[in-house]
Amino acid sequence: MSIAEWDQRYRTGEKVFDKPSPLVVRFASSLAPGAALDLACGPGRNALYLAEQRWRVTAVDGSEVAIEILGERARERKVEVDARVADLELGEFRIQPDSFDLICCCYYFQRDLFSSIKSGVRPGGLVIAIIHLLSPDEPEGKPRRACPGELRSYFADWEMLHSYEGASNEPEHHRPVAEIVAKRVERG
């Protein structure tokens, strides 16, 4: 789907969710607030939640409409989010190495982004990722859906705190998902 199509969906209120992902709440709520990055944040449900928990949040999305909605919602909730419009596929946002204590990438899958995500997390930090899986009726695959086991394989050298594949735990998502929460292991 193009960014223009996402803009239109957001303008009509489609895909504008209020509640953060339960996986983000479950794991981020037990962490000391630090620097967080929410990639492909959409209108910012996870970014807003993290900001309300006193995280310093950078939120990035290619949709200008989504970022505008996020900005309005942040002002209403009286929280600060460094919200940026950037097309991740075009490399318009660069994740600096060792910059974040938490990186969230929920319902967005770009294979070539995972090496930057991994290097962007500080030792001891977490990645929370949720992506849609290929369905059995899609044998040729889709570029935005992962094969079973694929998401977990990107983090094989990290400590896996959570790994799940199956039906989404969020009522807004009807396709099967892969979820991981992985911790960057501190090497001595």
CATH architecture designation: 3-Layer(aba) Sandwich
How much is the radius of gyration in Å?
Answer: 16 Å
Spatial strand sequence of the major β-sheet: 3-2-1-4-5-7-6
Q: Work out the helix count.
A: 6
Give the tags.
single chain, 188 residues, alpha/beta, Rossmann fold, seven-stranded mixed sheet, 27% helix
Report on the architecture of this protein.
With 188 residues, this protein is of the alpha/beta class. It has a single domain, classed as Vaccinia Virus protein VP39 (Rossmann fold), CATH 3.40.50.150. It has a seven-stranded mixed beta sheet with strand order 3-2-1-4-5-7-6. It starts with a helix and ends in a 5-residue tail after the last strand.
Ordered list of secondary-structure elements with their pairings:
Layout: H1 3-11, H2 22-28, E1 35-39, H3 45-52, E2 56-61, H4 64-77, E3 81-85, E4 100-106, H5 114-120, E5 121-132, H6 150-154, E6 159-166, E7 177-183
Parallel strand pairs: 1-2, 1-4, 2-3, 4-5
Antiparallel strand pairs: 5-7, 6-7
Quick synopsis:
The chain has 188 residues and is of the alpha/beta class. It has helices spanning 3-11, 22-28, 45-52, 64-77, 114-120, 150-154; strands spanning 35-39, 56-61, 81-85, 100-106, 121-132, 159-166, 177-183.
